[in-house]
Design brief:
Helices cover about 45% and strands about 15% of the residues. Strand 6, helix 6 and strand 7 form a beta-alpha-beta unit. The N terminus is likely disordered.
Amino acid sequence: MLVRSDLASRTLRRRVLIGALAAGGLLSMPLALLAQNIKLPSTITVTAYDTGSSGFNMGVAIGKMLKDKQGSDVRVLPAGNDVARLAPLKANRAQASFMGVGVYFAQEGVLEFATREWGPQPLRLMLSSISCNAVSLAVAKDVGVKEVKDLRGKRVGVVVGSPALNQNAFAVLAYGNLTPKDVKLVEFSSYGAMWKGMINNEVDAAIASTVSGQAKEAEASPRGLMYPQTPASDKEAWARVRKVSPYYGPHTTTCGPGITAQSPAVLPSYPYPILMAYASQPADVVYGITKSMIVHYDVYKDSTPGVDGFELKRQDLTWALPYHEGAVKAIKEGGAWTAEAESHQQAVVKRQQVLQASWNEFMKTNPPEDKEAFRKAWMSARAAGLRKAGLDVIFE
């Protein structure tokens, strides 16, 4: 009787332990078994930055993995600005996008998204890349710039319809206590066109990931390329940066033009690219893509610079946007979701709800047809809605 009781007790303890391990994602399973429950459409369409950009290259690499492992054909559509990247998702002609920080501006309904056609968008994260690279202003070596402040009076590229790129450039300028008025802004139709302009000596500085194909091409050109550093020790400079772009932070960068693990550089950065979808995208599709990226990470991690940053343990689960429910499920199964992540998730979902409610009420007021008048009226209504909910306005 004592033996049977002791056996039952041990069995119960074992079952409890296994249940706890499974709940915490600590009970490992063979990758093949983990991947059995992944079901994806035969064709998946995603958007990304221009052909040759690091975001596009990563999209292609992950697409190849999905083809090889899940049998899904992935079409990567290059698009020159944030609006063009999001439009196919909004129209339900694409499932996801490898975006930059334009996802944040779209969520907030600001800059190029402060229009009647857009407004705040219910976007959700899947996974994002945090790697050896950074996203900052690159400068042609032949202009003699050593520090950000030396860009005063120089030509800085901006892309029409791409608030992410432009806001990032302005934030880096702020580190050197410069504003857009202190430089000569040169407009381009797309990211790719801007970087052709760099090589053709039409511009002196432009924003790019340090592992971008365009940055590498410019580095190899007669002009050369460098990234002026932004040391974290200058607290006042960083306060100026965050006032323009609160999603930015100092990042020890170990790859890029003139940058190595032995000779790192401190540059501004944020996760890039950011794989995202609309909240309305079916959870099983988002789960399948996210789960595949987690389970088959070893398949694509070395395929192109920066793609290793999609590793599950590198994810910033308390960034500026909420995660899609399908992605949350995959991340939970990977054992990475935390109580802090869940608390943050609820907070950023609430922010999106407040923004959407403010937009809905604003649109009932018969807002002005004039584009600039519309923007000003919306920004005022947006600020009022956020303040009423006790949330930071950020963009005045």
